Amino acid sequence: MKRPSEKSQAAVTMRDVATQSGFSPATVSIVLNNAPLARYIAPATKKRIEDTAKKLGYRPNAMARFLRSKRSHSVGVLFFDITDPFCTLIMRGVENALYQASYLAIFADAHNQRNRFERYLELLLERHVEGLIVVANWLFVDIHVLADLSKRNIPSATIGWELPGNNISSVMVDNETGARLALEHLHQLGHRKIAFIRGPKMLIDSAPRWRGIQKFAHGAGLEIDPALVLQLPESLDPNSSFESGYRYTEDLLEQRKKFTAVMAFDDLTALGAIRALTKAGVKVPEHCSVTGFDDIALSSLAAPSLTTVRQPMEAMGALAVNIVMDGINAALEKRDWNVVNQKMNPELVIRDSTRAVSLTGGDD
Amino acid sequence: MKRPSEKSQAAVTMRDVATQSGFSPATVSIVLNNAPLARYIAPATKKRIEDTAKKLGYRPNAMARFLRSKRSHSVGVLFFDITDPFCTLIMRGVENALYQASYLAIFADAHNQRNRFERYLELLLERHVEGLIVVANWLFVDIHVLADLSKRNIPSATIGWELPGNNISSVMVDNETGARLALEHLHQLGHRKIAFIRGPKMLIDSAPRWRGIQKFAHGAGLEIDPALVLQLPESLDPNSSFESGYRYTEDLLEQRKKFTAVMAFDDLTALGAIRALTKAGVKVPEHCSVTGFDDIALSSLAAPSLTTVRQPMEAMGALAVNIVMDGINAALEKRDWNVVNQKMNPELVIRDSTRAVSLTGGDD
DNA sequence: TGGTATTGCGAAAGCGATAACGTAGCTTGA
DNA sequence: TCAAGCTACGTTATCGCTTTCGCAATACCA
């Protein structure tokens, strides 16, 4: 039994510290915040104040502070779907960078629902977040959100996602390069008959990755067989691509198409493809190589471990924070600041799911 | 270029709505919050106020509201390590339940570091979170934290973790039952020589799971060969158990121990074990069955998909929120409330990593 | 010696909202 | 007929903190 009557001892306030230490609240504030004016405060006074603050167990009331100073020391982080494995390390990166700056993150998860996204945005704005980070890869949000943000002068950045007519900063992986890296790798291993599972149109990543593939193929004289090119269906469930990868690969096998490698849109698709291949008795990587994209946590743990293109997710999260913090500081110092649209370099991670094409394989 | 000089239009305040609509701030407050007194406000007045609020794009200032009402409408959620796959669905459950209640979650990630934990706790208390949820499975935090919390009368709950001398609510899976379910399953499949990989002592889950195993073994007359019982090392890295599972299983195989099944402490350990078995040419499940615990996202995607004991993680998150909310409401209504220590029922999820013991196998 | 800087601190005005209390006019019942 | 209660709002006092302004005193310089 918890009795609320346990004398919910009114929190000790700054005024308490002031009267106890014999100074005014103003001085206490200046000392405890180490404000510029603290230069002029006598060391003895500082000590007295700090000591009594500690003795009383004073804890500043953030709300009062925020109300007065108009700074909330928090930034909103809006995820489109937190169960997407892509998000985990981004969270880590964001959280860590904010922690360094003594900011707190208010995470929100839109569950891929537009109205939920907007409701959360509203809640975050009411709380006067000083900045906003939006993590998504769906082409969902339209311009009016941006309008609201820039009118209110809230520094924002998107991760894995970009708004057209960029008035808003963004951090993305260089998808085109990433796709090229993977394909180049397969090509170097001797693969010529490669099946491609493209991403859904809805995803902003899909087009540039395909472009990277086409450019490399063109440059290297690699022929892309249209019959080996598939495209994932539109879906809101981030984990559905495993299913799709499985089914599409199964279809290819049933149609007796010849290929020695599958380049999948992302890791989950690749894992689905591997599952289908294995089930059909096609060994990976002995008979068929598979590549993914993202390097989510699973990929190194899967059997076989997945060769994939890593997005530097923690770094992307940290960079987004830095961009936003720069915006915040700029506004504070009444400087100008720039919208930045940064493309991060992906990294090819070679594991066990790719191998040089076998001579006994179907590579005519 | 972003010019800060874009007339950062001072946010429209309640006073603006008041003067514009011709009523007093108090009335505006009552109407917009639909406070009890709103019964007495003329419908026409309500409409006028609501209309002008909408017209001006009024958005309440949460900080001012919080300062006055002493309610922050947010609860802190303290994770020990957010990269632990165990956490993802808990986050989802917590977030969703809070969303229903129009509360916002302030997530914090302690990175398994005690000082970081304490710093975050401090930050959360400064923000006057109305409740606190701590997600962990390490026996890390000691009593003085609890003392602080209950003195400040902040309803709290832990997930996957329990404090001794329980003055604080907790939500855990019934580990003993879960372990029994898994072992029972293996036993029914005919397995008699079973290797066990126990959890590290540091984890609170380890002991009850082992107890469940022992009890079932005793009841069923199953003999546990001490040579087949291993224990994971203490480690702070949630993903290290894959490595350990791999290595330990490798050791068992090298020592030519006979066993037809491995019951691993958790899913990652199980996946590591499977990897070692597969690498050594022992097929799962044909030659050896493997079970895990948790049912993290990977488990259904792995090859073979993992038979495991599911923790109802979303439900656990939601329940923790409900417990905390009940505490908050109780305090508000000056009711008493109870500390609850809830054990949730685990569920056996049978997939492809377990099979009836083969006659040709090594089961003498 | 007088004037300017530097040092050391307090008084008071809010930040934007809510809650307690007032103040009317009007209805109702005995 | 008049106290009591309901209806429909407005006044005012904070909530706990920051910040600007202001006032002294002491130090410095010419």
Report, as a whole number of angstroms, the end-to-end distance of chain A: 78 Å
As a percent range, the share of strand residues of chain A is 5-15%
Report the top-level CATH class of the largest domain in chain A.
Answer: Alpha Beta
Please, how many domains of chain A? 3
Are there runs of chain A of 5+ residues with pLDDT below 50, and where?
Answer: 1-8
Structural class category of chain A = alpha/beta
Q: What Rg of chain A, in angstroms, do the CA atoms define?
A: 27 Å
Number of separate strands of chain A: 12
Total of helices of chain A? 13
The CATH architecture of the largest domain in chain A can be given as 3-Layer(aba) Sandwich
Biggest interface, chains and residue tallies: A-B, 68 and 68 residues
Q: How is this structure best described in words?
A:
Two copies of one chain form a homodimer. Helix content of chain A is 43%, strand content 14%. By secondary structure, chain A is an alpha/beta fold. Chain A has three domains: 14-60, 434 Repressor (Amino-terminal Domain) (Orthogonal Bundle), CATH 1.10.260.40; 72-173 and 313-345, Rossmann fold, CATH 3.40.50.2300; 175-311, 3-Layer(aba) Sandwich (Rossmann fold), CATH 3.40.50. Chain A starts with 13 loop residues before the first helix and ends in a 15-residue tail after the last strand. Mean pLDDT of chain A is 91; it is low at 1-8. The structure holds a DNA duplex (30 and 30 nucleotides).
Describe the structure using short key phrases.
homodimer; 364 residues; alpha/beta; 434 Repressor (Amino-terminal Domain); Rossmann fold; 6-stranded parallel beta sheet; 4-stranded parallel beta sheet; 43% helix; 14% strand; disordered N terminus; DNA-binding
